[in-house]
Specification:
The chain has 226 residues and is an alpha/beta fold. It is 37% helix and 19% strand. The strands form 3 sheets. A 5-stranded mixed β-sheet has the order 4-3-2-1-8, sandwiched between helices. Strands 5-6 form a two-stranded antiparallel ribbon. Helix 8 packs across helix 9.
Length: 226
């Protein structure tokens, strides 16, 4: 099975008020698990002129917000590219990020299309042909993974421009928390940090979207590679 692990960083917990700052995604094929460093990765920062949210969330993402500020103040394409390389992410307008994620999914085999659609509605980006996102396109159904993805990330993602036009998330989400529950002593599903401790995975949760998405893949692999 192929699935995509997705994590987002936001300015708070309220999907009706707060903003997505960044999106990280990692594609995994359980029948052909690649070395972690070779897994397809997507890391996007959404360009914003202003951000608003909780003090806790803004402080947690202060390095990300600083990178957004630096990018907005960069005066040349070369400086902007340096910031992207330094931070390890591409910067997109909010109305561009869904198409960028779709193209990432397309390059890595998560998009199934009718051959007739391919022949008629394609565009070239960096030498690669991609389907055009049109009103008559067929949605891409995703097997998603993530810590509390269904209860948190999904609500934010569905508010992005064109998300519901392009993607549909299957109702059964892969959440690694259930694999590491202490059924006697826990009062709730363990956090990502606690899951990593119980799995023997070194390092703390970084709150870098693509690294957190990778943590989820590492945790899930303990189930199907045990």
């Amino acid at each position: 099975m192929k699935y995509i692990s997705i994590d987002i960083e936001t300015t708070g917990l309220d999907a009706d008020f707060n903003q997505i700052l960044s999106i990280g995604a990692v594609i995994e094929d359980t029948l052909n698990p690649l070395p972690f460093e070779e897994l397809p990765k997507f890391h996007a920062v959404i360009k914003r002129e202003s951000v608003y949210g909780s003090i806790f969330a803004l402080n947690l993402n202060r390095n990300l917000i600083q990178a957004m500020k630096d990018y907005s103040e960069a005066r040349t394409p070369e400086l902007k590219e340096e910031i992207e390389e330094s931070f390890g992410a591409k910067f997109y307008e909010e109305d561009e990020v869904v198409e960028a994620l779709y193209q990432f999914c397309y390059r890595n085999g998560l998009v199934d299309l009718d051959p007739n659609f391919l022949n008629k509605q394609m565009k070239i980006v960096d030498g690669i042909p991609y389907p055009i996102l049109g009103s008559n396109m067929v949605k891409t159904y995703l097997n998603c993974a993530g810590k509390n993805f269904a209860g948190f990330d999904k609500k934010f993602l569905e508010k992005l421009p064109r998300w519901k036009q392009v993607f549909s998330i299957r109702s059964r989400v892969l959440d690694p928390g259930i694999l590491f529950v202490d059924w006697i002593n826990d009062e709730s599903i363990p956090s990502l940090d606690e899951c990593k401790k119980r799995a023997g995975i070194d390092g703390v949760v970084t709150h870098n979207a693509v690294e957190d998405a990778m943590d989820v893949v590492m945790l899930l692999r303990q189930c199907y590679q045990s």
